[in-house]
Design brief:
The protein is mainly alpha-helical. 63% of the residues lie in helices and 5% in strands. The two termini are 47 Å apart.
Length: 772
């Protein structure tokens, strides 16, 4: 992992990186004046294990130092306390502005992100002039400014709804200065459509809401979404909607926004209730269909073989999708007369007549015509990808399906070149829903054992990578699942950030795979994959998904007859339900888990269950009952537990003692826990113990000592990326600086705390707003 984050391009004067660099160099100059000496910067760089060029890049504002580097750099000049805290806050503002597209203003508030989510428009799009003019008229008469304008493009499968809508959206996107949101609702896919709540999760994150701040309830999500879009000018593209019920919660309440919807359904109720303007897309006109061929093959070839070209587009039923796939097939045979290729297509159509009605035979014929061109290996991959339930799959996942030693990139290239597969996010591939249905139809005729083995390998692959990613996210606590029985290739994850990024990219597929595995009886893989995903779901605040995953883990562990896995799944489900505020359900689940762990004498399971009881009772304010469970956990840890378990028991008892005003006892326990965590290299525990020591010092009235503790905890939480506890530390520092008479420092930290809580949509933000 490099020591710095490169800065791309020149920064304007108001750029947060420039501001940070200016304050850093000013602070260094003040420190040098105070000490009366100028340290050797090359020697400082050597001690920090960075290059001299990197150090100068930090000071001139071209590179942002990582949090850990800054924490080591400042003491080299004697910069500590309040001044160091402000520089850390400014560094974090740069980081947030890069992660979310937002910039912090002088009062600590953040500007709004501007998502750019439109997929790339089809490069061979042509024709549809009349339809584009009509869409232009729709936009010119948006109607009531108090409601979002909605345009629906409907029509049969393969008629080019998405291609037209994307082409138009790219034309007009600059009219919507606050960006674009896009979602494929997968309304007619072979799997489950995307629920509005899932789509809103993604939209809210794109609008700057952290995962932990996203509400659980669909109505609450919709309210927050509409509030965020209230004054924004945005284009929202909702592709492939099954019905109006899947669209309505995604409509903004602002007349500044335009919503574009594509669907095979007419969506009559959207027209009646929301005043949506609709355009029903018809088949291509013959000249437009020939124009698509000319885009692929060149105008000369089409003109020279016009009779065969006319027959080809007729056999494609003038459907843009079919014409495009046929054109891609023809383009691969530049020396073969077009009439010969049309003859092959006629023969294929006669062969496939038995598959279905005349309404769907044309598309199936076109698919089959291109499919027969594939090698046996590419054809098998095409069929097996239909077994993957997620929207996208990468090369490593394809290797798992095939059981190969390397990602089959040449096979993926063959599938994309003939338009039987499309590349979405870089390195990830997916189907049009019609092609997925066709691939699934072919796969159904394959050997069932072969398909079962492919899904089993795919699940083992995901368990293996999720297990490795979990270890990188939480390295000091071994995951209690056996290593996956998988020997195929897996992606290289260099550290914490790459592990998080892998989970972010795959979490939708993981959720769908868990549902598939639960339905098909892969029970051991269900609870293992659920367990490996738990810390990611917890840290990113995916509360409803966390409950769903743990419910499936309980079912899977119960059915495969693993008592330890079942009891642990009950405990994890209790933790998840407690995060939703379902205290009664959580306590009942913990009672069941405790009974099961006692039944087979699992000391570690009992200990963790008592700690879960502590969290639930502590959250309700019942610190006396929480303390009883904390003491039980500590006793179990002292009776042969690991150092990590002992530290967890100590910190749990210490926190309840502090809540009950027993600061002397709490301090002793917190210091012991801190020493253990420090020795283990457990940063999350070290931050927890440091924060508790700050609480103790504050409770004893030692304000300066408490400030030092909270500053140390703040640095650790920033390094962990734990935004909630960072906000808590900033808020406590603001209070203590005010109590110490340091008004300027209090104002800085109050603004930072408010900004962080506002980013989390946390009610504590109100505590830090200016009073009238």
């Amino acid at each position: 992992m490099p020591d710095e984050i490169p800065h791309k391009g020149d920064a304007p004067a108001e750029d947060p990186l420039r501001r940070f660099a200016e304050e850093l160099t000013t602070a260094i100059a003040r420190a040098e004046r105070r000490s009366g000496r100028i340290p050797n910067r090359a020697a400082i760089a050597a001690r920090l294990k960075i290059s001299a060029a990197s150090l100068y890049a930090y000071l001139n504002g071209t590179t942002l130092p990582r949090a850990g580097v800054l924490d080591r750099l400042l003491p080299e000049w004697g910069i500590t306390g309040e001044e160091a805290g402000r520089l850390s806050t400014l560094r974090e503002a740069v980081q947030v502005s890069r992660q979310t597209g937002r910039r912090r203003s002088a009062d600590g508030a953040f500007s709004q992100p501007r998502p750019r989510q439109l997929p790339v428009a089809h490069r061979h799009f042509t024709g549809r002039g009349a339809e584009l003019e009509r869409l232009k008229e729709f936009k010119a008469h948006q109607g009531d400014p108090s409601t979002a304008a909605v345009t629906v493009i409907c029509g049969t499968a393969g008629v080019g709804k998405t291609a037209l809508a994307l082409h138009w959206a790219h034309r007009i996107k600059e009219d919507y200065r606050d960006g674009q949101l896009y979602a494929n609702l997968r309304g007619f896919d072979t799997g489950r459509p995307q629920e509005p709540g899932q789509v809103l999760d993604g939209f809210l994150r794109a609008l700057g809401v952290t995962a932990s701040a996203i509400p659980i309830d669909l109505e609450a999500k919709t309210v927050l979404y509409r509030s965020l879009l209230g004054e924004r000018h945005m284009l929202i593209f909702l592709d492939n909607a099954r019905s109006a019920e899947y669209v309505r919660p995604l409509l903004p309440g602002s007349g500044h926004c335009l919503v574009v919807v594509t669907s095979r359904d007419r969506l009559d109720s959207l027209a009646v209730r929301e005043g949506a303007r609709r355009m029903s897309l018809d088949l291509l006109k013959p000249d437009d269909a020939l124009a698509i061929l000319a885009e692929w093959l060149g105008e000369d070839r089409v003109r020279d073989e016009i009779s065969a070209a006319d027959d080809l587009v007729r056999l494609c039923a003038h459907l843009p999708m079919a014409v495009g796939i046929a054109a891609a097939r023809v383009a691969l045979n530049p020396q073969t007369p077009l009439r010969t290729l049309v003859g092959e297509l006629v023969d294929a159509r006669q062969l496939l007549d038995r598959f279905g009605s005349q309404d769907d035979v044309d598309l199936r014929t076109i698919f089959h015509w291109s499919y027969t061109l594939l090698s046996a290996e590419a054809a098998e991959l095409f069929r097996l990808i239909a077994e993957h339930p997620g929207p996208w799959i990468d090369g490593h996942g394809c290797a798992a399906l095939l059981g190969t030693a390397m990602p089959p990139m040449s096979l993926l290239a063959a599938l994309t070149s003939c338009h039987l597969l499309m590349e979405g996010p870089p390195g990830r591939f997916g189907f049009h829903d019609l092609l997925r249905a066709y691939a699934a139809e072919l796969a159904a005729a394959d050997d069932e054992v072969r398909r079962w083995e492919a899904v089993e390998r795919l699940l083992a692959y995901y368990v293996a990578v999720a297990r490795a990613a979990h270890h990188l996210i939480q390295p000091c606590k071994a995951i209690d699942i056996p290593p996956a029985d998988y020997s195929g290739p897996t992606p290289y994850l260099a550290g914490h950030d790459e592990a998080l990024a892998w989970f972010e990219g795959e979490i939708t597929a993981i959720l769908e795979l868990l549902r598939l595995a639960t339905a098909q009886g892969f029970d051991a893989q269900v609870w293992r994959l659920a367990r490996a995903s738990t810390v990611f779901l917890r840290r990113t605040g995916r509360r409803s998904e966390r409950v769903n995953v743990q419910e499936m883990a309980v079912v899977g562990a119960g059915r495969c007859g693993d008592p330890s896995a079942h009891a642990t799944a009950l405990r994890h489900l209790a933790d998840a339900r407690a995060r939703l505020g379902e205290t009664g359900e959580a306590l009942a689940l913990l009672d069941d888990a405790l009974t099961e762990f006692r039944g087979f004498g699992d000391r570690s399971g009992l200990l963790e269950t008592h700690l879960s009881f502590v969290r639930v009772h502590g959250a309700t304010g019942d610190n006396v009952t929480a303390l009883v469970h904390a003491q039980s956990a500590l006793e179990l840890a002292e009776d042969g537990g690991t150092a990590l378990e002992l530290a967890g028991g100590l910190i749990s008892v210490g926190r309840q003692q502090a809540h009950l005003g027993r600061f002397g006892s709490a301090a002793i326990l917190a210091r012991r826990a801190w020493e253990l965590y420090l020795g283990l290299g457990h940063v999350e525990g070290e931050a927890d113990a440091t924060m508790l020591l700050g609480d103790v010092e504050e409770g004893l009235g030692h304000l300066e000592a408490a400030i030092d503790r909270y500053q140390a905890a703040l640095r650790l939480d920033r390094a962990l990326g734990d935004r909630l506890w960072e906000a808590v530390a900033l808020g406590r520092l603001a209070v203590l600086y005010a109590a110490s008479g340091k008004a300027e420092a209090a104002a800085v930290h109050r603004g930072s705390a408010r900004a962080r809580f506002e980013a989390l949509h946390h009610p504590a933000a109100d505590d830090f707003r200016p009073r009238p």
